[in-house]
Fold this protein.
Amino acid sequence: MRHLLALRELSPQEITDLLDLAELSAVAGRGEQLSGTTLATLFYEPSTRTEISFELAARKLGAGVVRCDVDRSSVQKGESLVDTVRTLAGLGADAIAIRHPSAGAAHLAAAHVRCAVINAGDGMHEHPTQGLLDLLTVRRAKGRIAGLRIAVVGDVRHSRVARSAAWGFSKLGGSVVAVGPATLLPTPGDGLPLHLTTSLRDGLEGADVVMVLRMQRERQAGGDVPTLAEYTRGWGVNSQVLRAARPDAILMHPGPANLGIELTADAAYGPQSRIAAQVAAGVDVRMAVLAWALGRERLLRPSLARRRDRRKTFVANGLLEFDQSRTQTPLAEPASTIRND
Amino acid sequence: MTDARPIPDSLLITGGRVVDPSTATDRMADVLIEHGRIAAVAGAIPSGEHRVIDAGGRVVVPGLIDLHVHLRDPGQTHKEDIASGTTAAVRGGFTAIACMPNTVPPIDHPTIVEYVRSMASKTGACRVYPIAAITKALAGEELVPIGGLAAAGAIGFSDDGSAVANAELVRKAMAYASMYGLPVMEHCEDRTLARAGVMHEGEWSAVLGLHGIPTVSEDTIVARDLLLAAAAGAHLHVLHVSTAGSVRLIREAKRRGVRVTAEVTPHHLVLTDAAVQGFDTNFKVNPPLRSAADVAALREALADGTIDAIATDHAPHTIEEKMVEFDQAPFGVIGLETAVGVVLTTLVAPGIIGVSDLVRMMSTAPASILGVPGGTLSIGAPGDVTILDLDRAWSVDPAAFASKSQNTPFAGWSLKGKAVATIVGGEIKFSELEGEARVPAPVHRES
């Protein structure tokens, strides 16, 4: 049993192993690797893609899933987070995927239960499964992470997605530059493995990956940007702006996107977009994480053998083509659609 | 009442190394307390009819005084009360403490001052000096009745927990408190800058995704209050200094002759913001644990006299209150029972300050800042004495605290040096010395 709390806490090898496991999960398809186990999802914040993605991943490997509806549970009666996770563990959950508005909530939960805790996003801290799916998406598109330049554009300061990306990409040898207005960049210093720039053009120059973050509307009320229009004027990404990056650069967004604010539709649905591929990678990554957290990852190994055989074939036929056939989903497909293949 | 023998109204402490910076003393000597006051400090005092305790070569100092304690009484006695807080104090070597007014109701009326003083005289193990609020209900809008509170026994004024945002009110409070010779004690923090912050704004807040409290939120209010104090000719006491910027401002103001004193807590001298990385709420404190550069500046400020005193900011909270998400937990850590051990281990043992400096910062200076008796072993002073064992090795076990709360950032620390006896007005309130096993039991625990 293992927790997944933050990519900062994983070694490069562990991250690579999880990505490899995600590829095995993708090939394994439906199975019974997690039969007899139960995943509880405990989401204190609304989420469509992450929660459904966890559920699909668990079901595909044969695990049971219970959804703890925070709005209708004893949380509304004032039950503390610690008591809630203890109750879920006591009821027999083998893993709890938790989404919470407070940074450190998953750490707090993990300190008080014996079952596996998977951080599905804690405040502004980390969103490790999102970080892994971003890594997987890039690895599928580029074949590697090391040596790549990744530009993360937008509200990096308040973004758990950006933090997990910063750790994930830098641990595997990528170089991450954060781009945004000064008020939305993290405190300068050596804390996060990020280069900072307020210039969109400088940030995108030479980028292999452009990751655009969601611009939350509250930022205008909080005074972090004078107006959203001013943000869009300075840091909005469109297909024109994307030309500053490498010609073969890919575009990503964790969703849900505010099209027209941080990103235009022409870019989101353009040829460089991998937004739909990210959603598909999410299920693969979460299958891997569940198997890893529950100590069942070796049950995915039989398919390793199969995959190795197949890989030979694919290498002969061009492995990249195989990968891209999975990840280059039709560009017109809405970003929120989850591929269930 | 089975013992018919009269207890002599005197106590002789023999064989100790007496360290008292107020009289420039550091030598082997005996200390005689008679009728609750220091009667003699001399080479060899005949034992006569006195009750005798043998310090056995340990360090005998004027009773320690903590400038900054939250006793939570009245109103929040599930966290602490006057009996448990003062018991924790004497077990930590303190013979007197000043308590902060953010109780429920707050100490903003003479009746509440009288309540605290009366409870302290009935159930307190040490002397208790109430600090009154600056503004009614700590709301930052209207001044409290400063004269009436002073007459009732308040020894200073503070809205600790937050600064008074309205500069004109601070100016008036300073002018008014000055008439009574009492300090205005400010928790220097600009709320508009601190906003929703829960830890130091810096590299670790960036990593952990927690809202930061920038150092300028403290520096700007320190600067404002120093200017106001200079203009009013008033005594400003800066509570729990945490930033290098504050240190620079206070140093410069002292040079100009501004009547400013300042305190720092043991946790701000020893811990940095890196301690927060496991999201343990026992490291959530306001002001927050700062960067290593700030800690270095605070230590330098202690050494050069910019900071006058060490105070605990003992802030009890229950386990249930602290066992929550980091951003939901209340600010504050306790310190009465660990302060001496932490300061001896981390500052005195490595030679950053001497034992005499410790006594100055934890006894002499606090007495002078508060304008209360004590802080000295001169003849006629209160018979308040603390005995320190510099070699005593112990480890911090929160479950063994006399405090009702256990929210210490030092749980499990191995410390060297401890207060082993605490004498208030000639009465032994706490002792771990051989033959003097009078250890007050934690008053709140069921058997």
